[in-house]
């Protein structure tokens, strides 16, 4: 155990071990499905013999201080407040990306706080420190959840074409569960959720991948703008999570961002009409569950904080 940034970081607590034996049928399938996509929203790792069970290593408090990773992400990969102002971001690309990053950060913080202590007052204090101190974080958490939920909604056709498992029984049971999600119209077909993808695509239709700009001296140059920048930064976020020293934090962070990237891909491209890779399906649905849990936990914490304020 060592101390990092005032927190005790237990390497044994954050160590994750791959499943044994190696699921050979998954490894073979992943090798077949992985391809190089030039304009991918995210590129998943090369298939290896390391597969991890997220249920064995649930997301929660580990004592790891990842503030330096988040600091680098916000300073170098997000667009920043000035860039997302309406006059600088007419199609909303920058705003969508930055809010998705902030929302994912808030989701991770919620899972950490939920596992922080058995005492509600201690959890509430940590929730205030990490999330409630900035009202935008809670709003962005809900925004990220809406983005992923809209992505899942857009994936219906792709899911129907996707094979969930080589085992017929497992494939059938998984397909039934996924179909049950789509059949929950109160959840999937809310008016606000139905509007998310069309609104984002409408903005995309008015944008171009690059623009020719002219400076004061009438010199022209090519400026890469729009969704191209977002895709590039999305790939960089996934790579950045490889710098996280905590094994459990790294795996959950990569899965969660891969899920967000898959949702953006489904919304902004024609991917919704094509079968998804196994890892895309897994990341998308896992991230939806993570964000839904985080939103519910945040609402519970908000109630506790209100009660404390009224007492």
Which SSEs are present, and which pair or pack?
Elements: E1 2-4, E2 7-9, H1 11-14, H2 24-33, H3 67-76, H4 93-114, H5 120-132, H6 135-154, H7 156-161, H8 168-183, H9 185-188, H10 191-205, E3 210-214, E4 220-224, H11 227-240, H12 247-268, H13 278-310
Antiparallel strand pairs: 1-2, 3-4
Helix pairs in contact: 4-5, 4-6, 4-12, 4-13, 5-13, 6-10, 6-12, 6-13, 11-12, 12-13
Can you walk me through this structure?
It is a single chain. Helices cover 61% and strands 5% of the residues. The strands form two sheets. A two-stranded antiparallel sheet has the order 1-2. Strands 3-4 form a two-stranded antiparallel sheet. The protein has one domain. Strand 1 and strand 2 form a beta hairpin. The model is unreliable at 1-9 (pLDDT under 50). The chain has helices at residues 11-14, 24-33, 67-76, 93-114, 120-132, 135-154, 156-161, 168-183, 185-188, 191-205, 227-240, 247-268, 278-310, and strands at residues 2-4, 7-9, 210-214, 220-224. It has 311 residues and is mainly alpha-helical. It has 13 helices and four strands.
């Amino acid at each position: 155990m060592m101390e990092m940034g005032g927190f005790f970081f237990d390497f044994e607590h954050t160590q994750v071990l791959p499943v044994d034996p190696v699921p050979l049928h998954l490894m073979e399938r992943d090798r077949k499905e992985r391809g190089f996509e030039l304009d991918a929203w995210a590129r998943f790792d090369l298939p290896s013999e390391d597969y991890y069970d997220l249920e064995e290593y649930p997301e929660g408090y580990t004592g790891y201080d990842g503030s330096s990773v988040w600091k680098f992400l916000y300073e170098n990969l997000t667009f920043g407040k000035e860039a997302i102002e309406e006059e600088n971001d007419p199609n909303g690309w920058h705003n969508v990306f930055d809010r998705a990053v902030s929302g994912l950060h808030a989701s991770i913080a919620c899972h950490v706080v939920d596992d922080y202590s058995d005492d509600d007052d201690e959890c509430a204090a940590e929730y205030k420190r990490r999330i409630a101190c900035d009202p935008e974080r809670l709003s962005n958490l809900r925004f990220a959840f809406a983005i992923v939920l809209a992505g899942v909604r857009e994936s219906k056709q792709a899911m129907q074409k996707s094979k969930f498992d080589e085992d017929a029984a497992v494939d059938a049971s998984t397909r039934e569960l996924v179909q049950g999600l789509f059949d929950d119209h109160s959840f999937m077909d809310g008016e606000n959720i139905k509007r998310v993808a069309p609104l984002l695509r409408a903005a995309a239709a008015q944008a171009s991948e690059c623009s020719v700009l002219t400076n004061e001296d009438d010199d022209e140059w090519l400026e890469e703008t729009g969704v191209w920048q977002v895709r590039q930064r999305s790939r960089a976020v996934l790579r950045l999570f490889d710098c996280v020293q905590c094994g459990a934090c790294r795996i959950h962070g990569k899965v969660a961002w891969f899920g967000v990237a898959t949702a953006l891909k489904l919304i902004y491209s024609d991917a919704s009409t094509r079968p998804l890779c196994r890892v895309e399906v897994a990341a998308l649905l896992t991230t939806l569950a993570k964000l839904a849990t985080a939103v519910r936990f945040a609402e519970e914490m908000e109630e506790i904080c209100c009660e404390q304020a009224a007492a």
